[in-house]
Write a structure and sequence with these properties.
Pfam families: Aldedh. This protein is an alpha/beta fold. Helices cover 38% and strands 20% of the residues. A hairpin with a 2-residue loop joins strand 1 and strand 2.
Length: 495
């Protein structure tokens, strides 16, 4: 366990909230800022530049100039690789600073900022660095009278808009393939968690990424985010966030230059447990750990737990016994497992869903209350509802908090119908000791990722994304290059 006095470090921290455009830290063009408070205890962290259309325009034009003069795209893949590897090394060297910023910004426990978020961010950048000089172009099988080349080229200027729940990781999933391919990027972090994005851009420049190639403009979605998505010089938008805002991204593309839009949106993932799975205790530990990790503020959280009726009582008892292990605590304490929700608005949202669960007839087995209110921060107990139906509000809508709904089913057909009876299709899980059933149900589940007898085991080598209203496109893996590159055919006649 860490021996660092994180509270003392937090007291001494003075984060820089200015934008980073064309390699320089700058104030917003009109001088406006917004106050950023920590959800841990509502302490003021500092003033952050309130980027708007003029700031986005400056960042996009800097990115366009950098792309057009080939200062980055023109470098050999092996050269970009080495620079991005240095970037990844610098992220790891700054891991304590970045972890502290992440925890103060959005409330997650410091142990996970340090052990998950920072290493995952560095690994993502390093993995795409390693991949970029190992991707080959193609020659088509044409007649002898022609030579047809199929080449993959950088797209241009990429707008990246990322959420507040995993600020560094979500940024890296877009930065890694976009930068490795030779694009320039304008990153708009959430106004709720801007600091790590700004620090990452500084580290990128220190590593040798040229000015203008990686720019960060903090600000609000309806100002900076909208301006970025509407900008005529942006070639693609990589967006991670709510389905509601994802629809706006598609609208903005239609109203501007028909830029590509890749949405990674919400989820209401089903965790399906059959009575032939004998180790119910392991399934219960897994669903509790996955649901309450990051305070439930995960798009892939297994918030709909479908359990076969014959084992449901026992399973609910086991899950309820796990909940106290995730009692909310001080995120700066290395022993804390469950931290603060990101802000007061999210606190009220989660408590509202808990009220809806009661009102619609759900039975709250454990939790269901605000915690640590005396700190001034935003905490909710890990909560488990039993007796939930698929048509209830807490089973249909994404809560983004530590609230689990247990839905009982009778047989395999009903389980599949319930699991797929959602507007979302991000992830799912099936638990069965019958290999035939596991394969059948996995094939039948309409989700981008299906786990079998586990949940959330993951790696940068596999794609992440969803079906239906969970979005389009895929982050991670080599498939992510498809989002940030164009395919060009060059047809050469041979006389």
């Amino acid at each position: 366990m860490s021996t660092i006095d994180w509270a003392a470090r937090a007291a001494d921290l003075r984060p820089d909230g200015r934008a980073l455009i064309d390699g320089k830290r700058v104030d917003a063009a009109d001088g406006q800022t917004f106050a950023k408070h920590s959800p841990i205890d509502n302490r003021l962290l500092g003033a952050v530049a309130r980027g708007q259309a003029a700031d986005i325009d400056a960042a996009v034009l800097a990115a366009r100039a950098a792309f057009d003069d080939r200062r980055w795209a023109g470098k050999a893949p092996a050269v970009r690789k080495k620079i991005l590897q240095r970037f990844a090394d610098k992220i790891l060297a700054a891991k304590e600073e970045l972890a502290l910023l992440e925890t103060l910004d959005m409330g997650k426990p410091i142990q996970y900022s340090l052990s998950v978020d920072v290493p995952s961010t560095a690994r993502c950048i390093a993995w795409y660095a390693e991949a970029v000089d190992k991707i080959y172009d193609e020659i088509a099988p044409t007649p002898d009278s022609a030579l047809a080349l199929i080449t993959r080229e950088a797209m241009g200027v990429i707008g990246a808009i990322v959420p507040w729940n995993y600020p560094m990781i979500m940024a890296a999933w877009k930065l890694g393939p976009a930068l490795a391919a030779g694009n320039s990027v304008v990153l708009k972090p959430s106004e709720k968690s801007p600091y790590t994005a700004l620090r990452l851009a500084e580290l990128a420049i220190e590593a040798g990424i040229p000015p203008g190639v990686f720019n960060v403009v903090p600000g609000f979605g309806h100002e900076a985010g909208e301006a970025l998505a509407l900008h005529m010089e942006v070639d693609a938008i990589g967006f991670t966030g709510s389905t509601r805002v994802g629809r706006r991204m598609l609208d903005y593309a239609g109203r501007s230059n028909l830029k590509r839009v890749y949405n990674e949106l919400g989820g209401k993932s089903a965790f399906v447990v059959f009575d032939d799975f004998k180790d119910l205790a392991r399934a219960a530990r897994t669903v509790a750990g996955s649901m309450f990790f990051n305070q439930g503020e995960s798009c892939n959280a297994p918030s709909r737990v479908l359990v076969q009726a014959s084992v449901a009582d026992e399973f609910v008892r086991l899950v309820a016994a796990e909940a106290p292990k995730y009692a909310p605590g001080d995120p700066l304490n290395p022993a804390t497992e469950l931290g603060a929700l990101v802000d007061e608005t999210q606190l009220k949202t989660v408590l509202g869903y808990i009220d809806a669960g009661h009102a619609e007839g759900g039975r709250c087995v454990t939790g269901g209350r605000q915690a640590r209110a005396e700190t001034g921060g935003y905490y909710v107990e890990p909560t488990v509802f039993d007796g939930i139906r698929n048509d209830m509000k807490i089973a249909r809508e994404e809560i983004f908090g530590p609230v689990m709904s247990v839905i009982r089913f009778q047989d395999e057909a009903e389980a599949l119908a319930l699991a797929n009876g959602s507007a979302y299709g991000l992830q799912a899980s099936v638990w069965s000791d019958n290999i035939n059933r596991a394969h059948r149900v996995a094939r039948g589940l309409r989700a981008g990722t299906v786990h079998v007898n586990q949940y959330d085991e993951d790696d940068i080598t596999v794609p992440f994304g969803g079906y239906k209203q969970s979005g389009n496109g895929r982050d991670k893996s080599l498939h992510a290059f498809d989002k940030y590159t164009e395919l060009k055919t060059t047809w050469i006649r041979i006389d």
